[in-house]
Amino acid sequence: MRTVGVEEELLLVDAGSGDPRALSTAVLALAERRAEGDSVFESELHDQQLEFATEPRTAMADLAEEIRRWRAEAAHSAAEAGAAVAALATSPLPVSPAIGEDERHRWLARRFGLTAQEQLTCGCHVHVSVESDEEGVAVLDRVRPWLPVLLALSGNSPFWQGQDTSYDSYRSRVWGRWPSAGPVELFGSAERYHQQVEALIGTGVLRDKGMIYFDARLSHRYPTVEFRVADVCLDPADTVLLATLARGLVETAARDWRAGGRPDPVTAGVLRMADWQAARSGMEGRLIHPRTGRPEPAADVAHALLDHVREALEDSGDLASAQAGLRTLLERGTGARIQRELLADSDSLRTVVTECAARTRG
């Protein structure tokens, strides 16, 4: 069975006021001490962020347990530093982001100016193992139309600098300012994929392979396809649903490739429209259906994704849990809906942040 690993970025905030706090250095040191030097946490572009990565897992129950454990550990370390962590993809409150001291981060700040300065966004990356780069690129070519659905399911960033953006995932709009971010055209082979990556780096605009910010890519560190399109989810159950669907997409695509099927030739331009629609309305309105290219109710499109990967989920034993997870998400709503409901109840963005931090702590 294919392994799955998850990387989550979390927002560091003041435990009382909810304001973002530039405390990643202190929190990382405390986390390392708690772990006796073997910490899973890393710094990110801004000092108001913290990232962790799970181990590769085959059982989704194990993945769920590990995500909850590391969220709780992050909360403990942050509390020792006088802060809290919140699984929010953007800060609801106004913030002046602080670039970290890492040399790479400083280079990004010099090279990309305001684009880098404003990138205080928290995403969720899902890694699914593949047998080879050739299989991985065949997967990338076939999962493209479904990536906006994963974005919609994860929407958790309705607020930006103290105001409602009218988007469910404003993070994705900010992230899209990077020159290599977003949907891509078909590659056709691993050779052409690597040629394209080298051509992009050869322009001198990008520093290295780590800056290939496609919505999904071959990982430059692991033998995986890396899904990078999603917001960090408020509820870890939604993260597990994303991981389950991602593995289903990879397995379904790989089977189609081995059977001689051909990927959908939908253009990157159309996929950009689908990305925008998913970011704008999330699961509350309509999404562009990958089969028709036309707007349809978001719940119908999400169920179409589930049907698309049904056979793979049946074989891995994940179908029932995926069905239940999707049903719960549709009833409860994504993080974007929950944040807006918290604001409607409290009339305070500070309450939104502190309540989301409490939910992240578990």
Automatic annotation (TrEMBL):
<protein>
    <recommendedName>
        <fullName>Putative glutamate--cysteine ligase 2</fullName>
        <ecNumber>6.3.2.2</ecNumber>
    </recommendedName>
</protein>
<dbReference type="GO" id="GO:0042398">
    <property type="term" value="P:modified amino acid biosynthetic process"/>
</dbReference>
<dbReference type="InterPro" id="IPR014746">
    <property type="entry name" value="Gln_synth/guanido_kin_cat_dom"/>
</dbReference>
<keyword id="KW-0436">Ligase</keyword>
<dbReference type="Pfam" id="PF04107">
    <property type="entry name" value="GCS2"/>
</dbReference>
<dbReference type="InterPro" id="IPR011793">
    <property type="entry name" value="YbdK"/>
</dbReference>
<keyword id="KW-0547">Nucleotide-binding</keyword>
<dbReference type="InterPro" id="IPR050141">
    <property type="entry name" value="GCL_type2/YbdK_subfam"/>
</dbReference>
<keyword id="KW-0067">ATP-binding</keyword>
<comment type="function">
    <text>ATP-dependent carboxylate-amine ligase which exhibits weak glutamate--cysteine ligase activity.</text>
</comment>
<comment type="similarity">
    <text>Belongs to the glutamate--cysteine ligase type 2 family. YbdK subfamily.</text>
</comment>
<dbReference type="InterPro" id="IPR006336">
    <property type="entry name" value="GCS2"/>
</dbReference>
<dbReference type="GO" id="GO:0005524">
    <property type="term" value="F:ATP binding"/>
</dbReference>
<dbReference type="GO" id="GO:0004357">
    <property type="term" value="F:glutamate-cysteine ligase activity"/>
</dbReference>
